[in-house]
Structures are given as structure tokens and as C-alpha cells.
Amino acid sequence: MPPDTESPHGREHPAQKKVGWWIGALSGLAGIAGLIFGFTQACEPEGPTAEEWREKANAVCEQQLLTVDAALSSAVQWAAHLSRQAAAGSATPSDVDHTASATRSAANSLQYFVGSLRAIDQPDAMKDDIQRALDTGSDITGALNAAAKGLQSGDLAEASRQLAAVQQGLAPWTAQMRALEASRCAR
To answer: Is the pLDDT reported for residue 17 higher than 70?
Structure first.
């Protein structure tokens, strides 16, 4: 309202002018702040970099890979022992139980390891390769679990098939992990 004009309640008070000016100034600042915030958000990279993923994956591998290796080694040793005992006709239920337990332990250890790697945010550029490697690890876990079930149910032929699938899957999985260039994960 122009300063000379009378309002229905009398003349406009000078404080009303100042309040209006402050509201206008604050609105302008809010608009500028919104523009700056929007621009900075648009310029930030989305997701982790490949190097950030590798650092986190290496940390998981340093923490867990020795346990996975030991569990797989134990399962292989028990499976070899059971195979020798079965060939000689002297396999005992205890041999079968120990082999099944070692195989299940290896499956659990590997599943935890793969799950820990899967929980790391993945860079878009590597996502397909990481998923392929982790899916191969999950397939190996599934074969170990199936072998343990076969052993427990007395289906040694099924257990043998599943352990062969584990053996066949380990080389491609190792190659896939090496290709991800997480140096602590590829042994």
C-alpha cells in the first residue's frame, strides 16, 4: 500500500513495511539456498566407486576368508576320508555324520561370507560382475547344503554329485573374484 494511502484501519505502520521487506528477503534467500542444494545434490556421484567397494570387500575377506578356507578344507578332508572308507567298505555312520557336519559348516561359513560381500553397496559399473560372482558363491553354498542333506539321508550318490558341483564351481568363482580386483578376496 502506498505510504500516503489510508488503510481501513488508519495509516500503515512503518513496522509493517519492515516485516514485508524481511519476508521478501528471506524468501529470496530460501530460493537461493534451494538452488544451491539442488545443484550440489545433482553434482555428487551416485553410489560408491569401484575402489571404495574393493576396500570394503578386502576388509570382509581379511576378516572371513581364512574361516571359509578352513571350513572348506575340513569338508574336503572329511569327504575324501568318507570316500576312502566307503571304497574299502568300512564307512561308519560316524564318518557320514562328521562329513555332513563339516559340509554344512562349510556351507554356513561360505553363505555368511557371500552375504557380507553382498551387503556392501556396489558401484553401478561393477554391479553385474559382482552379482555374478556372488551368485556363483551362493550356488556353491547351495551345493554344499544339498551334499550335507544327501549325506544325512544316506543318498551318497546325490552327495557325491553335489560335491562334484562344488569342485566345478570353485575355479570359476575364484576367477570371478580375481576379476573384481579385490586383492584380499582372490586366493
So the answer is: no
6 to 1, 14, 15, 16, 121: CA distances (angstroms): 9, 13, 16, 14, 65
Q: Are 61 and 112 part of one and the same domain?
A: yes
Q: Identify whether residues 79 and 154 lie together within a single domain.
A: yes
Backbone angles phi, psi at 173, to 5 degrees: -65, -45
Q: With respect to residue 25, please indicate whether it lies within any of the assigned structural domains.
A: yes
Confirm whether 184 is domain-assigned.
no
d(CA 185, CA 120): 14
pTM score: 0.74
Number of independent structural domains in the chain:
2
pLDDT tens-digit series, residues 34-76: 667 666 555 555 789 999 999 999 999 999 999 999 999 999 9
Buried b (16+ CB within 10 A) or exposed e, 61-88: beebbeebeebbebbbebbeebbeeeee
C-alpha cell at 75: 569338508
Closest CA to 186 of 129, 143, 146: 129
- Note whether 39 and 63 are same-domain residues: no
Q: Considering only CA atoms, which of 101, 176, 100, 102 is closest in space to residue 138?
A: 176
Which residue range is the domain that position 37 belongs to? 6-43
**DSSP 8-state code for residue 45:** P
Residue 187 placed within a domain: no
